[in-house]
Amino acid sequence: MKLEEYLEHVNSGKRIVANSPQHLLMHQMLQEALEITHKINNEYHTSEEIQELFGELTGKPANRTLGLIPPFNTDCGKNIHVGENVFINSGCKMQDQGGIYIGDDVLIGHNACLLTLNHAKEPENRADMYPAPIHIGDKAWLGSNVTVLPGVTIGEGAIVAAGAVVTKDVAPNTIVGGIPAKFIKNVED
User: Fold this and answer.
1) Residues 38, 110, 119, 135: which is the catalytic one?
2) Which pLDDT value is given to residue 189?
3) Contacts of 98 (CB under 8 A, 6+ apart)
4) Residue 45 bears catalytic tag
C-alpha cells in the first residue's frame, strides 16, 4: 500500500482493520517517525534544523515560521498540516493518522496531546481503529497539558485552559476548560 492510498483511506474516516494493509503501513510509518523524532529529541538543533527535520517527518517542505521546542512525539507524521507562525511547546504528542490541521498563529502549550484515533468498542474488534481529524483554527491557544480527542474542531481565536480534555467542538473566540472541557466565557469578556 502506498502512502497516498493510506491517507485517502484514513481521511475518509474509514475503519482501520487490525492486520490490514492500512494497519501494517501504520507500523511502518511509526518506525520512520520514531527515527526522525529520536533525532529531534536527542540532539541539539537550531530552529532551522528542527524545521528541516519536521519537514522530513511530515513529508512537506520545511516551514520557516514553525517554532518547536523538543521533545516532540508522533506515531505517523505524514498527516500533520501546520500553518504559519505556529508555536509548539515541549512535550507535545500528536497521534496524527486521522489528520491534524493547525491554522496560522496557533500556540500549543507544554505536554499537549492531540489524538485522532479511537478503537472499536466491540471487544472482538478492539484492535480496529476509527480515524477522525482535529482542526485547530487560526490564533487558537491550547494551554499546557491539554488533551484534544478525535474529531474535535477548535474554533478561531479560542482558548483551551490548561489541563482541559476537549471532547466536543469549541466555538470561535471562546474560553473552555475542565474535564470534559466546558464553556467558561467569551474571549472578549
Assistant:
1) 119
2) 84
3) 10, 11, 13, 79, 116, 117, 131, 132, 133, 134, 150, 151
4) no
